[in-house]
Design goal:
Pathway: Amino-acid biosynthesis; L-arginine biosynthesis; L-arginine from L-ornithine and carbamoyl phosphate: step 3/3. This is Argininosuccinate lyase. One of its GO terms (molecular function) is argininosuccinate lyase activity. β3 (about 195), α9 (about 210-220) and β4 (about 225) form a beta-alpha-beta unit. By secondary structure, this protein is mainly alpha-helical. The chain contains 19 helices and six strands. It starts with 17 loop residues before the first helix and ends with a helix. The chain is elongated and about 100 Å long. It folds into three domains: about 15-110, Fumarase C, Chain B, domain 1; about 115-360, Up-down Bundle (Fumarase C, Chain A, domain 2), CATH 1.20.200.10; about 370-460, Ribonucleotide Reductase Protein R1, domain 1, CATH 1.10.40. The chain has a two-stranded antiparallel sheet with strand order 1-2. Strands 3-4 form a two-stranded parallel ribbon. It has a two-stranded antiparallel ribbon with strand order 5-6.
Length: about 450
């Protein structure tokens, strides 16, 4: 840092090692906080005028100058200086260059410690709102598929083995539910983010008669942080948001992995839009689902960022430590990665096509109706464990005969349970098995239709 930097005081009697400037600077990444920094500074200046620390004219000059600086940064006409360390000192230095002593008054009653915490909270709050918008956009893409896919039946899996048949919209709504939990976590996280840090100064508060509620209201915060020491050391809100982003990345990775498999020749369930695929440098026939693979892969960096943040704060004594500067690159990277992944995922989901001919050609394979047949036996009074064993025997018989359960003669059914009659065929076959479901939240056609209606109402879709 420069000896002439506004952050340096008169206590220093030797020059800082020139390597320190490069090592300690954060302007290369925290310049992204400029809009929030200027917004917070304007609110602080106006509050200082309200309590009589600044004159109305001084506050007006500061507000006008900061607004002009923001315009220059917006337009790419502002030159950030690494020697000024960070975004806060770059903006304050520009303000002092324009207003002299009036600009020097702005930092009254605050520290860079509470200033950066406030900027980060404002930035995270804005980012959360954008994350939520993108999550909703992806939910809309899944729900938007439901009407067109309402009669398509898919094999659902456990242990990567065919398990039971489900309606395609039931599958899509499973992801809508996961994304809804992500949105609910974000909303809860936002409450803790939306607390004003400004005015707690370095760690102990200030003797200046500031009005912190005034600043909080100007910045749209719902409350004011109650302990100045805590404010100076707190990055819980960054870590919590990083966790929320990690869960979103995990959900996206699960979906992407599934569709990578589904798009293979072995599955041939789905066609991913070609504008989200790439080719091979040597194999001319390849249409690779690279975007889905990268969404799956990029979840690793989001998980890694969360881990880095957890390690960053694990041993820091109260209150502020310069270590906390290292949170922003991890935060920014997670936000950028998840936002782009969500945006691409919505387009892929909306544009993909199910290969119904391929799906239907193998849909009856794997005895997907076996559980429904077991529950049919239970309905006739057979204990569950007994019914489970008897249907397992029938599956073994069908495997030996290389046929489906619906193709077994009635004699085979009676051989395992004499109470069975020709009505057994009413629940056999994938379509009949799906139609037999009754429970709330199941893949019952009526239940799925109700859920589609509920989701359309929740997402305000016409």
């Amino acid at each position: 840092m420069s000896r002439n930097s506004p952050s340096q005081s008169g206590v220093f009697n030797s020059a800082v090692d020139t390597r320190v400037e490069k090592f300690t600077e954060s302007i290369s990444f925290d310049h992204r906080l400029y809009a929030q920094d200027i917004r917070g500074s304007i609110a602080h200046a106006q509050m200082l005028a309200d309590v009589g620390v600044l004159t109305t004219e001084e506050a007006s000059q500061i507000t006008t100058a900061l607004s002009l600086i923001k315009g220059e940064i917006d337009n790419g006409d502002f030159q950030f200086d690494e020697k000024l360390e960070d975004v806060h000192m770059n903006i304050e230095s520009a303000l002092v260059d324009r207003l002299g002593d009036v600009g020097r008054k702005l930092h009254t009653g605050r520290s860079r410690n509470d200033q950066v915490a406030t900027d980060a909270r404002l930035w995270v709050r804005d980012a959360i709102d954008e994350t939520d918008r993108l999550l909703k956009q992806l939910q809309v893409a899944f729900v938007g598929r439901c009407d067109a896919d309402i009669d398509i039946i898919l094999p659902a899996y456990t242990h990567m083995q065919r398990a039971q048949p489900v309606l395609a919209p039931h599958y899509w709504l499973a992801y809508a539910e996961k994304l809804q939990r992500d949105r609910e976590r974000l909303a809860d996280c936002r409450r803790r983010v939306n607390v004003c840090s400004l005015g707690t100064a370095a760690l102990a508060g200030t003797t200046i008669p500031i009005d912190r509620e005034n600043v909080a209201q100007r910045l749209g915060f719902e409350g004011v942080a109650a302990n100045s020491i805590d404010v100076s050391s707190d990055r819980d809100f960054v870590v919590e948001y990083a966790f929320c982003l990690t869960m979103i990345a995990e959900h996206l990775s699960v979906w992407a992995d599934e569709w990578v498999l589904w798009s293979s020749v072995e599955f041939k369930f789905i066609q991913i839009p070609q504008q989200f695929c790439t080719g091979s440098s040597i194999m001319p026939q390849k249409i690779n689902p690279d975007v889905c693979e990268l969404i799956r892969g990029k979840s690793a960096r989001v998980i890694g960022n969360l881990q880095a943040l957890l390690v960053l704060i694990k041993g820091l004594p109260l209150a502020y430590n310069r270590d906390l500067q290292e949170d922003k690159e991890r935060l920014f990277d997670s936000v950028d990665t998840v936002h782009l992944s969500l945006d691409l995922a919505a387009s892929i989901v909306a544009g993909a096509k199910l290969n119904t001919e391929s799906i239907n050609s193998r849909l009856e394979d794997g005895f997907l109706d076996a559980t429904t047949l077991m529950e049919y036996l239970i309905g006739k009074g057979t204990p569950q464990r007994t019914a489970h064993h008897q249907i397992g025997s029938l599956v073994a018989t069908a495997m030996d005969k290389r046929c489906r359960l619906a193709e077994l003669p009635l004699a085979d059914f009676k051989a395992v349970n004499d109470s069975l009659d020709e009505t057994v065929y009413d629940v056999l076959g994938v379509a009949k098995a799906v139609a037999a479901f009754r429970s709330y939240g199941s893949t019952s056609p009526e239940e799925v239709k109700k859920q589609v209606v509920r989701w359309k109402e929740q997402l305000e879709l016409g």
